[in-house]
Design a protein that fits this description.
Four copies of one chain form a homotetramer.
Chain A lengths: L10 E6 L4 H11 L7 E7 L4 E7 L2 H4 L3 H5 L5 E7 L14 E5 L2 E11 L2 H10 L9 H10 L6 H11 L2 E8 L4 E5 L8 E5 L2 E5 L3 H5 L3 E5 L5 E5 L2 E5 L12 H6 L5 E2 L2 E2 H15 L6 E4 L5 H11 L7 E3 L17 H4 L2 E3 L1 H4 L3 E6 L6 H12 L4 E6 L21 H4 L2 H8 L3 E4 L2 H7 L15 H4 L7 H4 L10 E3 L2
Parallel strand pairs in A: 16-19, 19-20, 20-21
Antiparallel strand pairs in A: 1-4, 1-10, 2-3, 2-4, 5-6, 6-7, 7-8, 8-12, 9-10, 9-11, 12-13, 14-15, 17-18
Helix pairs in contact in A: 4-5, 5-6, 9-10, 9-16
Keywords (chains A, B, C, D): 4Fe-4S, Glutamine amidotransferase, Glycosyltransferase, Iron, Iron-sulfur, Magnesium, Metal-binding, Purine biosynthesis, Transferase
Enzyme class (chains A, B, C, D): transferase
Organism (chains A, B, C, D): Pelagibius litoralis
């Protein structure tokens, strides 16, 4: 199932100046769990030691014991939820990473992806750097460690100027917490406040859970330094036009989060409305593929006047890995999470709303399930344009040839998936839903490379693809 | 949070005549996970041994390894999901239970509750019976073991005639699988078919996941015997009027299940329509308390014309047990699972729809959260009548004095919860939503004792409350 | 390796009237670890509950955490170390067992073996008893539960009169601790005292570890009741001649224990002296097979004047289960525990002293190892007579045909094992080492059935071998 | 208990050219378990990947599952047993360590201790090196990584010339296995052969377990390169006089190992003989403190003619961490491992033989136990001279002021320990037992710094003790 989505982009959290820094970080990471479920870590600083706990699994499993939290004393902490790429399941890759630098202890976590990590890593290894992990994060740390600049902030600035990519990062030294958003602001990052305590997080929902108030989005290319005297804003990069990732609004972010002044839920609902305007069809019910298709389906229903029904019920209990009986059960993977609510479907003309189509493998199975439940017609409506290009700024994205829209036109896709009609929201429709009058072709307001192939950040490693992809020869389970 | 719901009533599953009996049972139990999350067990019979695996935790954790399924060979199997009562968390209480009877091996699992279990147990212990567990299930097994009847079926019939209560049970011997529904049919049980294989389960959603077709509901007071020659129907009890539990339709069952010809989802939607008819109010949005309030909220919205919005977002990742920071976070318990979607609420008159009010503790917190998100008015609508009486046929139900509706009238409850108005669906409205013209006071069509105090089954243990409540003196963690 | 020994016979421990009863029991069981390494359990009574912890593994793993001991409050406790028989590895068989009887809570542990357990069990199941385990211990509990006698002591006496076999048992009710030694005193049991607290244990080494002083051996057929008023001695059985197991002195017991006034270490040393007298041979060194052959080798060396050397070094770290490489290592099983000390062996005429020969499989490998280390001659001397008969009073003993001495004479055994000469101590020599003038054929002072076939207790189950050997049809790992 | 010994010095093992390299390494590490019980690791090279498994615990626990060995394919492997120093229990410190160097993969394990590790580390961190661990081993790896030499062997040679200390190390690249013994040969290392396969190990007992034959000791300052063409000997260091650690013969090594042509067992026995010659006393029994005192006690008994007895019995089951009852048991720590065999002691004049006295804490308790068992006189004889100086070439050694012999003379120690007489073997007696005519004061044949304070290797870090001792600010449990 999960192979048929663009992956969530990891989540970061940081808090400075609170006696329960680690406990708050655990809660913030729980609220950001949707951004990465494979591993999580927290490092807290108690004035002397950097106390760390990092493990594979979900936040609620790793950080819900009082013994673990008790081992993480400190007034400042950073945390990270990881979405693992293939081959990166080892414990050594769980962030935040830590290093004893000549300046003192330093810990760093980042979400997103660097597009010149491999090139930088190669150069560092040639000079004698020893990498513990295969993460991009460690490239940044080695750049800092080997920088000839003086202060930690200067060394970090020097490192940031060498990296290319989309990221938000949080770091911590023995005197401050640092938060950086990439020059184009592709990945999200917000600043919040809990009494006198400053907080940064990937999304506003992580502020809500701890009762912190939202202050503002961190700006594209901004570096915030949180210390005893408050929040300081630095600008380590030359100015550049903002290009936030539009897929955050389509799928990555939680619907109750706000980004750049826009409600994710409202944006999705408006995409559904655009879809209804652009590709109306006579039908009896609007049914979302839960949970990510729900807001767009509500929008479609409101605009079209066709009733909204929960025609597919999702089972939220974990069941990804059941043993397939020898005599296989058809589409078991889908059945473990979804079941058709036959009563709402049988004999009806169904508009099925999903957030996006990536490989299309799940869509085929969902449609087969809805058909088996007796749908008279199935009209699929997708709350995104066709995803025709790889995302190099995200985590473990399918290669272009794996994307259904890269090899088939809409009619071909409709046939492949087995629906009576298929429509995607238009690119301009998507931009209208975001509150724009349309996409500004000369200066696009968002990064929409997965739809347009217009990549705003250089793809150094992709262009130098002769370099071996394998970053480490070490194979170890733990 | 969970203390403020009536508890799910455990789930049972049985399959006879399939080479992958245990793997199918694991899937069936996964689909029934909502009926009990504390423990699960499967016993499979391979023609010689009764192969068992029982553990605390969720089905996906216990039964998703191939090594575990490989240890459960057999062509027949029964399984159970348990919702633990206080003090019953020990492994020895995980069903199905097993006994080496003089007739051979015997295994049994049941959902529901016996109302004379304590009295029967006391008598058995006096005669020298040694109980391994504190479950009602074991009372049935000892009655069978010490029965002087001849065949296992006769001994089981004799045992069933001595027990009082609401239950569905599945059992297995070395020659057949037995499924029994209690005389009044309070607890649900359905029969399905997968090719030549017969299947029984608490709900139809467990048939759907394995691709089995629904055959029929097991009738009230019916005993089915599944063996090599097919399905045999027996009637061990004197005839009695049917009284299925109406709370299954309100909360216990999954919305995609069918019971007695009624879609659970449709029933809930119709309750929402009745609510709208009975207690209309001027408002801007209809917002469900997710997930159980969603169908009724859709019904309310459809009937009232007031837009449906996901104004509260639920985080499905497990997070019940986080460590509360010393400086406590207000209503953390609710925040771990729910967050207000401020954009849909701020400045609006909100109709908040929930399935029921038990203690009311969660309602207070949810309302406070919605109020903090800027709601102008909050009108709470409940898709059940006030729950004024304990349920003695279910699992670990609150005592009467703990029920909010037992001590406050509707106005008092509204004030306590902090809403601008509060309304419950009427008893007749509820029955109308079930397709009746109303409640037949002389012969009520359902068990609705939690609303009416009209208990259709004798409450022997409750009436003889002088007997000590503690069933075992053994205290052991594992 | 361990298949080539008679198995240790389990160990029991009990303490009454000490605030740290469980912690002392854990220490006592640690000292008795050699009597059973597969599982251990403790039940402590705190005046209200019987607090239990039972698990597979060694005492130091199960009972060394403060959290576990904290869950076992109480002023009285009993404990058990188990040596598992085939198929009895399940958790349900870990003793002490517990039952809620009509008289109240009751817990019991026993070492040894009942020779009519199967017959008694069959009768109990016919009457409706449900067994949780496949242990002999549970037979005793069911006999007590179904007894028609009045007091617990009377019911227990009635049960004990029905059982046949060799055992020591400890039991506990809500008012006392009970310790019983079988009518012939085959299995050992001692009484000790720690201040005002009374203690019972299988061997004196368990008194030593907690600093308790030895009071006396419990007599054959004696029942001790330990309660608030002290120690009471009862005699539930008719008088019978004492027949302690002579193999305790040869192998089972720890060398630092005293039994019936005899030091185990001294007894073994004297056996070595008898061996030297009976079968002297010209040699350069006396080398024990460690650890059990050491005392007899010291005795042999002292008497013969031939130097004692540690020619075989034992590695005590756990290493039974290493993965055999595909290209197998010769005699890996022996190498994991033993290594020849070449320097003490090369070119020497070696007298190799071991405690006994059961199957002979290990002896073959040890001799091959000593030969490979360059021994000029190997003369094996065994500190027991040939074991020609099964032991029905012990745990999981080899059947007669598996015993090397049942099919080969001494010359045949010498050839099979590959030694230049082989000699066993004579039966009378063994009795002399025990301080007797020889074996009294009319009234043997010890049970020596494994050497003589003279079984002092009836072998009911063995004689009625038509009854199925399988006690339970339940197959479950945990 | 263990605080009163010099610590074992870790063990290393390497094998090149065998299809079951990892399984053999696991067995070799099992035989070397006495050199370090806190953690163990294996890295195997399969021609492509370096497959690693490293964990806390004993070899038999970590490497006895077939699943683990199956994850370690390869024809070459190195392994390590670790004895943890304070604060080094984290998983990140478990060797062998691994690094992706610019030359390719590289893995290294070493035993012993570097005396300038802190100074080297400080310099490396200043240049930007990031350390994953706090081990000395990683210093060597960073020196190699940042070396400007060309080939790996050249870079390694350059690194080795910078380090000071006592060590044996094994390393592996994608083309060879490298084994190095320190310039003075302080730590042991041997070369063996199994068919066509070459093996290196800390001691010969690791050759015995896999059936390999001993070839020769690796020479002091020798570097062996094992590859497809065989064994190559290099000499990276300037020549220096050999100074093997004499404490290996006293305590560290296994008695069945050979070092530099000497049997450890024989050396210990001869020390006992020297002791008897030097400090004879009238007595009834010679009793060893088991197990390390046994060979010297045998030697003492042989030379003195006083009978050898196992007067103290050792319980080898793990029991270090039992919960002390509130009402403490006197000397529980000693009782968990040792028990007096009263029968051999009572009323006797006892010569108690132990290998060495470090802090003396255990000696006090052992003597008290022997006294309580009724000894008439206790004469303690120690198979080493007084340990008056710290060992800077070993692991976690006590500081000088903690050594009993640094503050008390022999008479003072006798009084402190509570014995009737106390004697240590003389330094020349020790050298005689090693086959020398005595210690050559101008060119001592062994490193005996712990007795003499004559340190043959520079103590750079100790002399520059102003540098902070804390190597990492990271605190993490896993």
């Amino acid at each position: 199932m999960d192979d048929d989505k663009f992956h969530e982009e990891c989540g970061v959290f940081g808090i400075y100046g609170h006696p329960d820094a680690a406990a708050h970080t655990a809660l913030g990471l729980h609220a950001l769990q949707h951004r990465g479920q494979e591993a999580a870590g927290i490092v807290a600083f108690d004035g002397k030691h950097f106390n760390a706990h990092r493990d594979l699994g979900q936040v609620g499993d790793i950080f819900s014991s009082s013994a673990v939290i008790a081992r993480l004393p400190g007034h400042a902490a950073i945390g990270h939820n990881r979405y693992a790429t293939t081959g990166e399941t080892a414990l050594r890759n769980v962030q935040p990473l830590f290093a004893d630098l000549s300046n003192g202890g330093f810990t760093l976590a980042h979400n997103g992806n660097l597009t010149n990590a491999r090139a930088l890593r190669h150069g560092l290894v040639q000079k004698g750097a020893i990498f513990q992990s295969t993460t991009d994060t460690e490239v940044i740390i080695h750049l800092i460690a080997t920088s000839e600049a003086g202060s930690l902030i200067d060394r970090m600035t020097s490192a940031l100027r060498q990296i290319e990519g989309a990221y938000s990062l949080v770091a911590m030294t023995d005197s401050c917490l640092i938060a950086v958003r990439d020059p184009l602001g592709v990945r999200p990052l917000v600043l919040g406040r809990l009494g006198d305590t400053n907080v940064v997080a990937s999304e506003t929902c992580a502020l809500d859970i701890i009762g912190a108030e939202f202050v503002r989005d961190v700006e594209a290319g901004e570096m915030l330094v949180l210390d005893e005297s408050g929040v300081h804003s630095l600008r380590p990069f030359p100015p550049a036009p903002r290009r936030p990732c539009i897929f955050e609004y389509i799928y990555f972010a939680r619907p109750d989060s706000m980004m750049e002044g826009t409600s994710i839920y409202e944006a999705r609902k408006r995409i559904g409305m655009e879809l209804s305007d652009e590709s109306a069809v006579a039908a009896d019910v609007v049914i979302p593929v839960p949970d990510s298709g729900v807001p767009a389906a509500i929008g479609y229903s409101v605009r079209s006047g066709i009733p909204f029904e929960l025609g597919i019920i999702r089972n939220h209990y974990v069941g990804r890995t059941f043993i397939e009986p020898a005599q296989q059960i058809r589409n078991l993977g889908v059945r473990l999470k979804h079941n058709a609510n036959r009563n709402s479907i049988e004999g009806k003309r169904v508009i099925l709303v999903d957030d996006s189509i990536v490989r299309g493998t799940t869509s085929v199975k969902i449609v087969e399930m809805v058909r088996a439940a007796g749908a008279a017609e199935i009209h699929m409506r997708i709350a995104a344009p066709p995803t025709m290009h790889s995302c190099f700024y995200g985590i473990d994205t399918p290669q272009r040839e794996e994307l259904l829209a890269s090899s088939l036109d809409v009619a071909g896709m409709a046939k492949h998936i087995g629906v009576d009609s298929l429509a995607f929201v238009s690119l301009d429709g998507l931009y209208r839903a975001m509150g724009e009058t349309g996409r500004d072709a000369k200066a696009p307001q968002y990064c929409d490379a997965c739809f347009t192939g217009d990549y705003p950040i250089r793809l150094t490693d992709f262009e130098q693809s002769d370099r071996p992809a394998q970053l480490s020869l070490l194979a170890e389970r733990a």
